[in-house]
Amino acid sequence: MFSISERTSLDGNFYDGISEILSTEPNQRETNETFGKKFSRRFAIITATKILFPFKAPLKHRVPHAFVTFGYGGKMVTVDPRNSSASVIQIDDIKTVLRDPHSVRLIDAVQKFRGPLLVGQTSPHTVRLYIERQIKRIRRYELASESSFNNDVLDCLLMWQLLGLLVQQQGRVTGTDLARLLVENRSAPSEEAQRCHLHRGESCTPTNPSCEATVISQSYALCERRGYDRFTDLLLGGHIHEAIECALQDGLYADAMILARRLLTDEPAKLLEIEEQLLATRLRCDPLVTLLSVAAKHTPINPDSGCWRSHLAIVLANLTSQEAMEFVYDLGKVLAKRDCNSAADFCFLAVSILTGMNPFKIVEACPDSRVSRQHITLI
């Protein structure tokens, strides 16, 4: 592609070359081997340039077209200059164009919102009334929907409840308040949580329905007694490390931990080993694993989209450290990556409430992180 200046230069060079060729003697012109090459090359270039740039300057629009803009109060202003005599200005209601139920509900919600909200000027009752209306609207949708355990709907409801709590307590919200709100908001049991529940149930459910609970408890007590006897025999022989290993194999984690704490005071690594083996018996859906991992400044496993509330609640209720806030913020980024937008906004807003971070400040995501967003977007 050539610009306008390049095309002009090509035009001049073309005609200069033609004049130079025609000014030569006929016999010299015929014997000149480059005559055909020069002429054909320059003719092809200037012809292509004429086709690509037929005008001196490009036109933005070849024909008149209408301009549309949105005005105050849901009005749409259209300026139509296609009439040669005078332009026509038309003002319409936006509802005449957007007629689908979802857009109509959004327009009604925006028109009922008495904004903007100004600190010290807007009455809290006005804000609370608007929030309560949104919560009622979400609950009506939840009851009318086929699935009353839609996680997206529950996450949206949870976000509005948090905003209502902020207004009610005048911004003084603690981690315990957030945890209570998360626990009260019921959610659909995720597949991972169901597997965790089934795993726990298998250990206490008899294979034969006719078996009584006393038989199971006696069998468990017998196995535990045998393991405890082996543990005691090793201690009687003075084999402390072997006794601890035997206790870990038989599931006697409490006995192993007490023994290591009392007798192996110069080996703190042994206590950590016992703790790690104890946590290894827990499933990843257990919120206790998340709490202990965050408290130990380890990287916890990100919970799935269905059970993130319990993991977040147990951290907010018990920890206020920087590592805990980083876990909440990272959880929000993970949820945003999974398109759980309301859940991600809850995490970002929770960090803002507890640390004072601006949740609306745009944070540029690292290209390698593959995170969709790291802040609350305003739509």
TrEMBL record:
Looking up Pfam families in the UniProt record yields: Sec16 (PF12932), TPR_Sec16 (PF12931)
- Give its localization: Endoplasmic reticulum; Golgi apparatus membrane
Q: Per its UniProt record, what InterPro entries does this chain match? A: Sec16_CCD, Sec16_Sec23-bd
Where does the Sec16 Sec23-binding domain lie?
308-351
Q: Which UniProt keywords apply?
A: Endoplasmic reticulum, ER-Golgi transport, Golgi apparatus, Membrane, Protein transport, Transport
**Which GO biological process annotations does it have?**
Golgi organization; protein localization to endoplasmic reticulum exit site; protein transport; vesicle-mediated transport
Q: Where is the Sec16 central conserved domain?
A: 65-171
Q: Which GO terms describe its cellular component?
A: endoplasmic reticulum exit site; ER to Golgi transport vesicle membrane; Golgi membrane
Family under the similarity heading: Belongs to the SEC16 family.
The protein in question is named Protein transport protein sec16
Organism per entry: Strongylus vulgaris (Blood worm)
Upper taxonomic lineage: Eukaryota, Metazoa, Ecdysozoa, Nematoda, Chromadorea
